[in-house]
Amino acid sequence: MKLSAACVVAVDVGSVRTGSFAWAAVDMPGHTLTAHGDDPAGAAGALSAALTDGASAVLALEAPMSVPVPGDWKLLGKGRTGEGNRAWSASAGAGALATGLAQGAWLLAEIARALPGLAATTQVSRWRGAADGGGAPLLLVEAFVSGEGKPVPTALGPHAADAEAAARAVAERLAGEDGTDGTDMTCAPQRAFSLLAAQAHWAGLAVAGDELALDVLVVRARPAG
Questions:
Q1: Beta-strand (E) ranges in the chain?
Q2: What CA–CA distance (Å, rounded) separates 216 from 4?
Q3: What pTM did the predictor assign?
Q4: Contact residues for 53 (Cβ-Cβ < 8 A; gap 6+)
Q5: Cα angle: 102, vertex 82, 162; to 5 degrees
Q6: Residue 155 pLDDT more than 70?
Q7: What is the mean pLDDT of residues 22-28?
Q8: What's the pLDDT at 206?
Q9: What is the pLDDT of residue 3?
Q10: Count of alpha carbons within 13 Å of 78, Cβ hemisphere only?
Q11: CA distances from 202 to 120, 131, 174 (A)
Q12: Does residue 30 have a pLDDT over 60?
């Protein structure tokens, strides 16, 4: 398996009923937009197809996907390092988290149904290890698109534009093209509770147990240009 050939699918979490849900797929290393849509089934299908074809894949959910669990109860709800004034526990973040939990779990369950025994990870090093016959071919990450990083809405609408911006940002980060090393947010120094790892486990994907307490990769979309 060559990790240079990968599919990155980003999901702009939102209400399916009102049309606020969107997804976009870009390839690596070209970062070409290959598919997009407004239905969760399409996103799951794009990921499953890439994995079936032998490529690696990345699912990026635009919602808080790891939360800090402090030892001191007085710090419960405190923002993650790097969040600034947009804490995961504030109204917008908390709403996206709740919606993202259900939508992410559904997506991963569909992928697990299509590919029984598939391994997933939230750790980039373990994802890259799949090229050597180990590791996991499906990487789960968190995307963050807001403020100056929001793109100009396209003819497809603002949610599709956000999804495409997130997919491109994740692809650029994994390829080392955005000048940033590592994650943009972390639960440290508090202990992390990985909602991505929990969703993967619930869905029936093979995920290492230690990942429940490991930080996930968070990629913030930056202004174009």
A1: 6-12, 22-28, 33-37, 56-61, 66-69, 120-121, 138-144, 191-194, 218-220
A2: 21
A3: 0.92
A4: none
A5: 50
A6: no
A7: 94
A8: 97
A9: 45
A10: 17
A11: 12, 26, 26
A12: yes
Whose tokens are 């994740």? That residue is 170
Other C-beta atoms closer than 10 Å to the C-beta of 224 total 10
The region of weakest confidence among 9-13, 56-60, 153-157 is 153-157
User: Which residues, 6+ apart, have CB-to-CB distance to 7 below 8 Å?
Assistant: 25, 26, 27, 28, 34, 46, 47, 50, 55, 56, 57, 58
Q: Indicate the residue type of 125.
A: S
**What are 79's two structure tokens?**
């923002």
Q: At 184, list the tokens.
A: 């943009």
pLDDT tens, 178-192? 767 799 999 999 999
**CB under 8 Å, gap of 24 or more: what pairs does 27-36 form?**
27/171, 28/4, 28/171, 28/174, 28/175, 29/4, 29/175, 31/168, 31/171, 31/172, 31/175, 33/164, 33/167, 34/7, 36/156, 36/160, 36/163, 36/164
Q: Is the per-residue pLDDT at 225 higher than 50?
A: no
In the predicted model, is pLDDT for residue 177 greater than 50?
Answer: yes
Token digits of residue 66:
């790891």
The distance of Cα 96 from the centroid of its chain, to the nearest Å, equals: 13
The residue written with tokens 């779990």 in the block is: 105
How many other C-beta atoms can be found within 10 angstroms of the C-beta atom of residue 107? 25
- The whole-number pLDDT of residue 31 equals 86
Whole-angstrom Cα distance, residue 112 to residue 95?
26
The residue behind tokens 């070209």 is 30
